[in-house]
Amino acid sequence: MTDEVPSPDLFFATASAYERTFALRAAIELEMFTHVAAGQRTVGQIAEACNASLRGVRILLDYLTVLGFFTKDGDHYHNAPHAEAFLSRRSSAYVGAAIDYITSPALLECYETLTTAVRKGRTAASRGGILLPDNEIWVTFARGVGPAVRLSAGMLARLVTGERDRPLRVLDVAAGHGHYGIAIARRFPNAVITALDWANVLAVASENAVAADVAGRYHLIPGSALEVDWGGPYDVVLLVNFLHHFDAATNDRLVERAYRALSPGGQAIILEYLDAPSEPPTLEVAAFALNSLAATEAGDVYSLEDYEAMLARAGFPRSLRRSALAFPQQQALVTYKAVGE
Fold it and tell me: Do 299 and 227 have their domain in common?
């Protein structure tokens, strides 16, 4: 029991949460964090650097200071440590471009039609949500979110077993920005990576492979992972942040394709958010499930037991191991095809 008096604060904070999103987007578009990192500190200096009004800059700076993106000392503003690290273009860990995906018209439409999606049990967005062939939203995703996953990609590369100088054939399914396969290529100098995705998205992965100096070992298969020939055999198949887009039956087909594409003893690595049915979901997992409802026909967040069952139905032995990577709640699931097969 509690004596807490009911309050409408949660309602108003949640109903107006879009204010935070668009205030942050404005600051990123104006490159405020970059200008502050470069030494512009006062409203006047920042306004001049942003080519914006004094009134507008002052109001936006104060709002984002209250949220914790800036600190204020007299009339001087400073980036908070996390803003300095991730929202200044002077930082190698810059992730501000992800705002283009998060606020893209295609994704916002998915949430604007959420009431209908709840009634139908699937996306109500026009043209069936975000999984259309060659959907430009995935180019936006690859360019915007790619830099944010480099740490996670490096950690995943360390899950690949065997000697560092051994020949290695890797298939990166729904490669997107390509950073997971590229991280393996950088860790294993004799690894050859094959990236599978829509052609327009693979153009971004190819750019990243060139930047990482692994383009000579980076090959492409354009098309749908459900339709094109995967080739093989491979020593490693990556299914990274992909299976949550589909229903269990479709995932069975994808996991079976991974099994068939692997050489005996080959390694499959799945990276996903995991549901824990016996526990209340975390906000991150619940939000991921909501995104799947809003934006896909049948996607969902699955449990460890769900993935174990998928892998078992495909023929993988029950030898799954879990590893946490850079993002809380995300788990890498690692298994192997039997050597005798």
Answer: yes
Helix axes 179-187, 199-211, angle to 10 degrees: 30
Question: Do both 279 and 216 map to the same domain?
Answer: yes
Question: Any idea what the CATH number is for the domain that residue 16 is in?
Answer: 1.10.10.10
Tens-digit pLDDT profile for residues 270-286: 999 888 887 888 888 89
In a domain, 22, yes or no: yes
Does any domain span residue 35? yes
Answer yes or no: do 67 and 148 share one domain: no
Q: Does residue 141 share a domain with residue 17?
A: no
| Burial category of 256 from C-beta neighbours within 10 Å (exposed 0-12, middle 13-18, buried 19 and up) | middle
- Asked whether residue 107 is domain-assigned, the answer is no
Question: What is the DSSP pairing of strand 168-173 with strand 262-275?
Answer: unpaired
- Model confidence pLDDT, tens digit, residues 305-324: 999 999 999 999 877 778 77
What pairs with residue 76 in β-bridges?
73
3-class SS of residue 82: helix
Q: Specify the 3-state DSSP secondary structure of 330.
A: strand
Left (φ > 0), alpha (ψ -120 to 50) or beta: where does 336 sit? beta
DSSP designation for 94: -
Those residues with Cβ within 8 angstroms of residue 260's Cβ, 6 or more apart along the chain or in another chain: 230, 232
- For the segment 61-65, the average pLDDT, to the nearest whole number, is 98
Question: Around 3, how many Cα atoms within 13 Å sit in the side-chain half-sphere?
Answer: 0
What's the structural domain count of the chain? 2
User: Which range of residues forms the domain containing residue 227?
Assistant: 126-336
pLDDT of residue 202 exceeding 90: yes
pLDDT of residue 328: 64
> Which pLDDT score, from 0 to 100, does residue 1 have?
52
Q: What's the whole-number average pLDDT of the chain?
A: 93
For residues 188 and 69, membership in a common domain is answered with: no
Nearest residue to 138 via CA among 177, 190, 181, 194: 177
